[in-house]
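Quick one: co-fold with adenosine monophosphate.
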Amino acid sequence: MKTLDAYNFAGKKALIRVDFNVPLNERFEITDDTRMKATLPTISKILNDGGACILMSHLGRPKNGPDEKNSLKHLVNPLSVMLGRPVKFADDCIGQSAVDQAAALQPGDVLLLENLRFYKEEEKGDVAFAEKLSKLGDVWVNDAFGTAHRAHASTAVIGQFFSDRVCGYVMQAEIDNAQRVLENAERPFTAIMGGAKISDKILIIERLLDKVDNLIIGGGMTYTFVKAQGGQIGKSLLEADKQELALEILEKAKAKGVNIIMPLDNVCADDFSNNANRQVVASGQIPDGWEGLDIGPETVKLFMETVEKSKTILWNGPMGVFEFPNFATGTNAIAKAVVKATEENGAFSLIGGGDSASAINNAGFGDRVSYVSTGGGALLEYMEGKTLPGVAALA
Ligand code: AMP
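Sure, here it is.
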């Protein structure tokens, strides 16, 4: 795989697949620009070499062609401020005017293309559409790790039309950090798995059983494990058909000598809302009409002790419904423990997959851990051992 540092972009027009899928509010203002900021080093390297950048991305989930809400034109000004230079905009990602605009670019110029997903061909991985896009640049750079698990036209299919395919810095960092955790973890290695469902995490949990010393289980998936072991879980989240699987995981963990650490207590609510009545209940003793929405204080202590002693930490999924401030205590405490392990114990901490990135940023600790993945589902699939089409296309 060609790295960005090994490639000289002088005089080249780099067609860069970026992940600018940022949230916008009703006034079309960006509410979280993490993904855009993450790509700036890639763009700067190319511009500093004397190249021009043609940026392409998707935004949101447009259903029927172009719409105002999902237009990338809303990103032009913010991007121009971030880069400290003007950004041109092509209001169609293919077609003659995009071709002309790309052809007119001078070294140091930046052109942002309109939303790729205004064409249904993008997600279909349409070869002819990919070929049209490919006409815009001399070299393809893929820096969109967040969509690397999709074989879309711009993320993978397009690769065949370029002899020069280059891995961007974000993509590189995501792969390197995931590899470091999977292949070179310093021990003790603790994985913290939370979030809503076991079904989303089963493959990664199984893979991690071969690698970790400690597996902490929290969040909504806990209750399926507890129920499978005969506990009372009230109206907590349950995947009834996954109970067998939950027991199998526990058996496998035992056989492999992995220390599985489950909640001792839970903060329960009588309603799925921030203002619900609350009580702390021992694990497996949740009364009818109540549901576990966070880990309890004894669990927080237990989890924190394990995390703080770890040298490698992978955290995927919140410990509770962290979107409700009254049930974010457990998640925030774990975030604090991850920071402590990182800063005081020299641990390598990787946060990512699902909602974990927003959980750590929400807790205000995003910049005090080793790496927060922008990957979501892509990171999960990479860690499950799957080949990501967007990575494979760079070979
Ligand atoms: P994931 O995308 O798998 O990381 O799941 C994140 C979601 O899980 C968040 O929206 C949380 O609100 C939700 N979640 C975490 N714990 C619970 C719980 N105990 N009950 C219901 N939902 C939960």
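If it helps, Residues 195-196, 200, 219-220, 237, 292-293, 317-318, 320-321, 323, 354-355 surround adenosine monophosphate (CB under 6 Å).
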